[in-house]
Design goal:
The structure is a homodimer.
Chain A: E1 16-20, H1 25-37, E2 43-46, H2 55-61, H3 65-69, E3 72-74, H4 77-81, E4 86-90, E5 101-102, H5 104-116, E6 121-125, H6 134-138, E7 142-144, H7 157-172, H8 190-206, H9 216-229, H10 234-248
Parallel strand pairs in A: 1-2, 1-6, 2-3, 4-6, 4-7, 5-7
């Protein structure tokens, strides 16, 4: 499927990723893997240094071969962008370019909105050494800057692709709620926790734990705080009952099984 | 500086990155580069397969050598986490683990909050083949899941490190305002734009552009919308005056220079 056909093709699966004069096949392959990690499938290569197809790209793609198989090669950036309505250029350094400068997250929202309106979109990346030149960037509607360590801001090409794919995917993915991961086992009720705390307190009493006696409310509250904050499940509470029984060398408590 | 010293050391520059049983030196090197891209400097290696130091790691680190130089090697995960207060484990697949499941962004905020409270924090990553096992994850306070293409969700180790570093950095970086990138040249005033529009309209009038005459308000408004939306700078407006003068074969308009 590699070729120089610049005719319009509907962009499915998010923005096209356009790599301008990429140098290393391994970076193209890693970029393809990163794309597919986040559901991007359309790869466009402008004048790749080592030609196309490229075996080093395939070795790095790690089962993202369909992205490489579908990649198209263009002789120039104008041809590679011809059918796109919204192009966002990535740039490692801030330049005077009189163009909106977006965060990756803001760019992702803009791309999603454009897609929803039926527009074809693209993410433009420069080659490893020099990035995009000013004439390339002038073709884009906006520039995206990845916030990074100012002392070491140069991202690997594939990693820049990864971050943009990640933000694009996130902009359409449901947010994990604050309770995610916590509902895997039925939670214990407050009464069940109280029951356990009574057993524990009685055992601690018998062991002479609450000394001096006037500290009992504070000590009891401290223990309750620990177990309440843990948001115990029913099964976990049964386990704790078992632990207590074992420590007391008692048969398991009937009320908790 | 590599060694097995597990004594407490203050974690500067964000969460420690703990790689459990990493296999490929090149992934350790790429992870170090990704760390430094986002200001993370503390790398901890639990039982790296090919020993330490590792020349392949250095070859991939691309000037992130200080991170590798400071890396410490631990015989087990318990030693690697010993001084940390908040550990977030990364996992490619969702598991029943009765532990909060955070998005990368939520984890980043939690890490920043813990750091602000003086706590030592860490991000825990498994090896390339198997990831973290359930006993590793049980040590963490929360699990982070990177939202990704369900059909191709396996991230490269260094890219998982990159995403977490990116989110951590972002959680402390100032947001780019909506006007970022647009204030690079002094903007034109509304009066200056009006002046240009009057010149343009007069020229178009002379050329018989406004036909039929009753459409003039609509056509004029369409043109004004275009130039207003472009948010022209003073210099850009001078350039447009020059364009108009050239097309009209007039000397440049005195009011706009």
């Amino acid at each position: 499927m590699a070729g120089t056909d610049a005719s319009a093709r509907p962009v499915l699966g998010g923005p096209a990723v356009i790599l301008v004069a990429p140098q290393l096949g391994q970076n193209i392959g890693a970029a393809a893997r990163a794309m597919l990690n986040f559901g991007l499938t359309e790869l466009r290569l402008v004048n790749p240094r080592d030609g196309w197809p490229n075996e080093e790209a395939r070795a790095m793609a790690s089962r993202a071969d369909p992205v490489l198989d579908g990649a198209r090669v263009y002789p120039g950036i104008a041809e590679a962008l011809a059918d796109l309505h919204l192009v966002v250029a990535t740039s490692a350094r801030r330049r005077d370019m009189a163009k909106p400068l977006w965060s990756p997250a803001r760019a992702a929202v803009a791309l999603r909105q454009a897609e929803a309106a039926g527009q074809a979109t693209g993410l433009l990346f420069g080659g490893e050494r020099a990035g995009l030149d000013n004439d390339d960037i002038a073709r884009a509607q906006a520039v995206v800057e990845v916030p990074a360590n100012p002392a070491f801001a140069s991202l690997n090409l594939a990693q820049a692709v990864l971050l943009m794919g990640y933000e694009w995917f996130q902009a359409g993915a449901p947010e994990l709620g604050p309770e995610a991961g916590l509902t895997l086992s039925p939670p214990a009720t407050a009464a069940e926790l109280d029951n356990f705390m009574r057993r524990l307190e009685a055992a601690l009493d018998a062991a002479g734990f609450f000394r001096p006696p006037e500290k009992r409310p504070i000590m009891r509250r401290a223990l309750l705080n620990v177990f309440a904050r843990a948001r115990l499940g029913e099964q976990e509470l049964r386990t704790l009952h078992g632990v207590l029984s074992a420590l007391l060398r008692e048969p398991p408590d009937g009320t908790a099984t």
